[in-house]
Each structure stands twice: as C-alpha cells, then as structure tokens.
Design goal:
124 residues, globular, 7-stranded antiparallel beta sheet, alpha+beta, 3 helices, signal
Length: 124
C-alpha cells in the first residue's frame, strides 16, 4: 500500500470515528480521551471546502454513479468536515440515503496535497 493510500485510510478512519462518536460536553481539565489534533471545521472554511468538492469532477462522477445505484443526498446541510493537524488533511463526510430513506451511509472524501482523493463509502 502506498504512503498516500495509507494516509487516506487513516484519515478516513479518524473521520468515521468523529462522525459516529456521540457528542459530549467536557469541562476544562476533563480528559475526554479525544485526539487533540482533530477539529471540526465550520464557517467559511467549511463552506469553501464543500463548495470546491461539489464543483469537482470527482464528486459529479460519484454523485451520478450513486444516483444510478438508487442513492441520493439531501444537500450540504448535513455535510461534516474534520481537519487533522497531524496529517495536514481534511475529511469531508457526505451522508447519502437510499431512495426509501431506510438506510443512511457516508461518502468520505479526503482532501490533502491540494486535491480530493478517491471517496470511500461507509455503510452504517
């Protein structure tokens, strides 16, 4: 496995963990056990990354493929973005649903080295 693929795999795992871990409130001094180098991306930084992904050829191809397989997505409101300082990379999680809304999966994109990497589908 190449170094680039290894980095993508690690980023995907970190992204999945943060997407599915329950939110907890920690008070100053509490050790929540959370990795300290990963943070949620919000605001204009998130909007710029998501916008660039949605305009990319990679996303358009994957979206068309998923639509033909019977999946759809509800737009950008549920998209989550995480950043790992250690990996210097972003993970963008896009929820996708079956047509009857019975199943929800996540399409994970890693953004590193100035480009989006091949997405990974995580079935929930």
């Amino acid at each position: 496995m190449s170094v680039k693929r290894s980095i993508i795999a690690v980023i995907a795992v970190v992204g999945v963990l943060f997407a599915f871990l329950p939110s907890v409130s920690a008070h100053e001094g509490d050790d929540c056990g959370c990795p300290t180098d990963v943070r949620e991306v919000t605001g204009s930084e998130k909007n710029k990354l998501v916008s660039n992904l949605l305009k990319s050829a990679e996303f358009k191809v994957k979206k068309k493929e998923l639509k033909s397989d019977g999946y759809h997505w509800n737009g950008v409101s549920e998209v989550e973005v995480e950043y790992s300082e250690q990996m210097d990379a972003y993970v963008i999680a896009i929820p996708i649903l079956t047509q009857d809304h019975s199943e929800k999966h996540y399409l994970l994109y890693a953004y590193s080295f100035g480009q989006f990497q091949e997405p990974i589908v995580i079935k929930q």
